[in-house]
């Protein structure tokens, strides 16, 4: 199931490209989407799609400190499948005042999956990666969403979806009927191009955030606008969402910025380098797109505090427990 070792030693994430934002985020700000990778202690799944280097809790703490972020949401990466040991280690390190987790449950109907135990350790949602695990869609996607809803609703969890925006729009009726909060990763899966911000799929997402507890994560702009092309479309889409329902937006860095399954080369013995991204600049861009401090207070502090059930007031900006 899990490999005992890698043939090549893991590389380590670098913070060299990360600069502090020009204006510090408000007290209690939360980075709502990061991953931790600790292959020396927690080997990756044998059937993974790629092999990342190490990006551990100490690296993450230094990253959050540089940005001035108080809180963080650890998202289970695909390379660990449903083995949550590394994620739980991170939650324990940061403590309940600072961290929450999002699990990945490969077999949603498995009665042996102890969701209440995960809840006690800080997990507050489940992620379905439709972009990788089920990219073609099909009738089983709806049943997958419904099974996930049935498992997590009693715990008050939310469903996090990684899917392209066309897929999200096609699932709008199902998402509306789930009656639990839904979070869409990476600008709702929008791929920026001329007119993307006002195209029909974007219209559907805007309608959903108005009509239901559906959140859009303003994360990984390098995935939504590769090479920085058409960032104006991301800006326009962000403003549309903020005008419609500012209480439904979240911000995230997507640290440590894995390369992305669309550009991967080589076998699993090759350590894939992390992208060099400046999350401080992404925070500055958010301020440029949404200059009203009240919007950023909601997006960075109030919305994640409510969704992930963080205590108040905000925790200090650094120091692991």
From TrEMBL:
Keywords: Hydrolase. This is Putative TIM-barrel fold metal-dependent hydrolase. InterPro entries: Amidohydro-rel (IPR006680), Aro_Compnd_Degr_Hydrolases (IPR052358), Metal_Hydrolase (IPR032466). Pfam families: Amidohydro_2. One of its GO terms (molecular function) is hydrolase activity. Residues 30-310 form the Amidohydrolase-related domain. The keyword Hydrolase applies. It comes from the Bacteria.
